[in-house]
Amino acid sequence: MKKRKTFIINYLLLLFFLLPLWGYSQDANFTQFYASPTYMNPAFAGAIPQYRATVQYRNQYPSIPNSYETNLFSFDYNWDDYDSGLGAMILQDRLSSFSMTSTSLLLAYSYQVKITKKWVVRLGLQGAYTTRTTDFSRLVFQDQINSGNPTRENLVGNFIHYPDFSTGFLVYNKTFWLGAGIHHLTRPYQSIVNTSERLAMRQTVQAGAKFSFSKDWDKDISLAPAILYQRQAPFDQLDLGVNFFYEPLILGLWYRGIPIQKNVAGRINQDAIAGLAGFRYKNWIFTYSYDATISSLNRSGGAHEVSLTLAPRYDKRNKRGSRHIDCPVFF
């Protein structure tokens, strides 16, 4: 046990050492980041009583033609007998105006160490394989406008693929949780054209709690506040808010922005206020959220997001002395 704790301390020091290393680019973003937490931090894989399967869909700026769409399917499993968690995800982004599609398969593994009777540390690793495609025939370049002829731009292929790796840690008890993750550790080359564009590291820090007001395990009455900070290249973002559960209903209010800071355009760094509504039926959870844009893009139509989660909350293994502690990450 002492060796494992020493390893964890060294690992956390290395993780925080890497946090300031920025790059350039941006990843897909979800308002309901807690519905598929393994996406923001691989250490969340398996931090549940049994398993969790989630389908998410996000349509961003629907008032703009050919809007940006994101689909995510995630699954993770608590491998309790080995103090481990397993996770798998399929993520797809589509930018219809360019016929640009990015598809990623991600596999995660986490390992937990119980540092006290009430606190647990989980370390997570994630490997990914990504493909990106586009249709250059739908683009118009300046030389085409000037000459009326096909472009002379050096467009090499319309497909690229690359491996990718991420890591993270999570500390929690039955009420509070705190974690951090670093994505794209190797900064793979991601440009479809013949350039040296590399994918930027994405750093996330997240924290939250769940305060229950019900003594019945099958009747959820609780408040679940959370905060998520992300940084990628020159862009950073803060999400904070709370979900209220009064089974079967779920209501939430969220804010995205850093009002004390200016963005790269010199304006107040704020994006949206999001409202959420949903319900739980047995082991199924459905939620819908709408982002009301409060930035200069207020005519974009905001963003719609839905998620459907299957997550059994009762673990029969607890009857035979399971050492597992549930992470209170909302669901």
Structure described in brief:
This protein is mainly beta. It has helices at 2-18, 142-147, and strands at residues 51-60, 68-79, 84-95, 100-114, 120-133, 159-172, 176-183, 202-209, 211-212, 221-232, 235-246, 249-262, 268-281, 284-293, 303-310.
Describe what you observe in this structure.
The chain has one domain (2-320): monomeric porin ompg (Porin, Beta Barrel). The chain contains 2 helices and 15 strands. It has helices at 2-18, 142-147, and strands at 51-60, 68-79, 84-95, 100-114, 120-133, 159-172, 176-183, 202-209, 211-212, 221-232, 235-246, 249-262, 268-281, 284-293, 303-310. Strands 1-2-3-4-5-6-7-8-10-11-12-13-14-15 form a 14-stranded antiparallel β-barrel. A hairpin with a 3-residue loop joins strand 6 (159-172) and strand 7 (176-183). Residues 6-25 have low confidence and may be disordered.
CATH class, named: Mainly Beta
The gross shape turns out to be globular
Q: How does the major sheet shape up? A: 14 strands, antiparallel, barrel
User: Radius of gyration over alpha carbons?
Assistant: 21 Å
Assign the CATH superfamily. Answer: monomeric porin ompg
Mean pLDDT: 81
How is this fold's topology laid out?
Blueprint (H helix, E strand, L loop, with lengths): L1 H17 L32 E10 L7 E12 L4 E12 L4 E15 L5 E14 L8 H6 L11 E14 L3 E8 L18 E8 L1 E2 L8 E12 L2 E12 L2 E14 L5 E14 L2 E10 L9 E8 L21
Antiparallel strand pairs: 1-2, 1-15, 2-3, 3-4, 4-5, 5-6, 6-7, 7-8, 8-10, 9-10, 10-11, 11-12, 12-13, 13-14, 14-15
Name a few traits of the molecule.
14-stranded antiparallel barrel, mainly beta, single chain, Porin, 7% helix, 2 helices
